[in-house]
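Thread: "does anyone have the structure for this chain?"

Original post by V.I.:
We have the sequence but no experimental structure in hand. Need at least a predicted one for the grant figures.
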Amino acid sequence: MEFKPKNREWVKNAAIIFLLILLVLTFFSNTIMNRTLPEVATQAVQSGPITAKVRGTGTVAANGTHQVKADQTREIRAVMVKAGQEVQAGDVLFVLGAGDSTELEAAQSTLRQLQTSYQKAALSVPDAGDYRLEERKLDVAYEELDIAENALDEAREALNGFTGGTLAIATAEKNLKDAQRVYDDLTTKAQETQQAAQDKIDIAIDYYQSLIDNPPSEDASEEDKAAYEKKLAEAKQSMADAQVAFDSLKFPELDAAKKNRDDCQARLDALTAGSGPLAEAVAEAEKKYNEAYDKVLELETALDQKIATDDKAAQMAALDLSDLAAQIELQRQKVKELSGGEENEITANVSGTIQTVDCTAGDTKLKDDLLCTIEVPDMGYTLSFSVTNDQARRLRPGDSGTISNYYWGSKITATLTSIKVDPKNPQTNKLLTFDVEGDVNAGSELTVSVGQKSASYDTVVPNSAIRNDTNGNFVLKIEAKNSPLGNRYIARRVAVEVLASDDINSAVTGDFDWSDYVITTSNAPVKSGDQVRMADS
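Reply from O.Q.:
Generated one for you, tokens below.
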């Protein structure tokens, strides 16, 4: 029997095939895994200069604007300007049509009422003073006083010739004369006091008349007109107060002097009672004399008071008429303005550029409605925008800024004038305000760059590489590890502090080597410890 050895060739072939399959599967599994990893772009850490700039965009605003408002309800017949148009002081802005019918009718009704009041007041003005009756009564009283005085002198001469006259009677007569003199002096002082009170009335009337003669001009502000009406009312009240003070005058000392004089007369009468008919005649004559004197004084006082009262009434009536005449003239002007006309135009009070026009022809505008806004270029322009507190700390008022989005017209300059707390974000932000000069207009959007000069730093990375979370700023650098199938790339977190930034790069401090690369972008989220694949360069 022939012996045949076993055929082991298939085992070897099978092992080779298995190893080849295993090698292929390992290769493809690594390739498949790489295709599922996040793809990242990287850039080397380097050194270089950084020019730290603070940038922001704001709207240019004019420092000075003038608002043109309607001073009454009027129809806008024609608009003579448009936004952006330059105007000079005195240029016509709007032509006004007829006023609102209701307002015009009310003004005409008020005018008629004022005219009626004036006519009634004119009819009630008192006539010029006629004091002939009072003067005749006073003349009669003077005559009676002269008669009584002569009779008294005759009676006293008769009594003095009577041998029974005594020193007591003479003393009593002297006391009576002294009492009469005191009474006369107090009477004179009372008349002076009355005259002083009358003078105050006259002063108040004169002041009121001066106000009536000098009313505010037609173009005076509402505040000036209100102040004038207040002064007018106060002047009227002053006149009334002065009259009350005049009417309330009392003279108790004069009354006491009169009583003392009467007592002296009574004592004299008692002493002369024993002189018989002669003493009685003196007493009777003195009584008639005193009565005649009192009557004269009473008539004189009454005439003076009547003259003063009539003068005051005439002056008050004249003042009221003057006041009504001034009101009528103002109301006539108002009716004329509300009636419309080609001459009714609104003109510019300042020179500048029309910023906005807030009405069109045919509109009816109420009093104080805004018609247009004039930008006053002589007062300059400003621009503001908000930045973080960290950015604001790099700047100082007076820093010059550059405009990065304005490519036509003359050069524009921006100068930082103030750094204030941003009212919208007071805890985290500051508001930068710039003075802007050059070919600009209110409403333009400008981007301003302002900041420090260039400085060199040892570690500079792209801005896109810097990330942040609750623990602060960081970057992800690439860490390479060798393997039988090639290098594996792992993202590792490195905490950084940003020292300065410009539009592209930032200077940082952190744990870096010269050969390190940092991730700038990725096609999927990446966190520290993740394996990534490098983008094809």
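V.I.: this helps a lot. The mean pLDDT is 82.
O.Q.: and The longest strand covers residues 472-483.
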